[in-house]
Automatic annotation (TrEMBL):
GO terms for molecular function: anti-sigma factor antagonist activity. Belongs to the anti-sigma-factor antagonist family. This is Anti-sigma factor antagonist. InterPro entries: Anti-sigma_ant, STAS_dom, STAS_dom_sf. The lineage of its organism: Bacteria, Candidatus Eiseniibacteriota. It comes from Eiseniibacteriota bacterium. Residues 1-111 form the STAS domain. Coiled coil: none annotated.
């Protein structure tokens, strides 16, 4: 998995790309998120539009990031998870834990407290 980040207003958006299944780059996102939290980031959006596959290791990475974000008093949302990834999150009951949206714009509005 590869990733890049960008700011949209006060939201830090991570654009994830490729399979989320472990490996050095996948684990690196946890360190980058921790650094952003240490720097004061409070709103983080994982854009999964280009994620092609996720396995249990990938779910673990997302869950660990979520826990770090929650422990820092910040918020995390997920956007654009395709049907296959949404199904994995549904089976693992993570859709009940993660705040997930079909579109990035919906998630950004939710951070602002607007209707989705």
């Amino acid at each position: 998995m590869k990733f890049s980040s960008r700011k949209v207003d006060d939201v830090l958006v991570f654009d994830l790309k490729g399979p989320l299944e472990g490996g050095e780059e996948s684990y690196k996102i946890k360190d980058v998120i921790k650094g952003e939290l240490d720097g004061g980031a409070k709103k983080i959006l994982l854009n999964m539009d280009k994620v092609s596959f996720v396995n249990s290791t990938g779910i673990g990475i997302i869950t660990a990031a979520f826990v770090s974000i929650q422990n820092a008093g910040a918020q995390m949302k997920i956007a654009n998870a395709n049907e296959k990834i949404s199904r994995v999150m549904m089976v693992t009951k993570l859709l009940e834990v993660f705040d997930s949206y079909y579109e990035e714009d919906e998630a950004l509005k939710a951070f602002r407290g607007g209707p989705s």
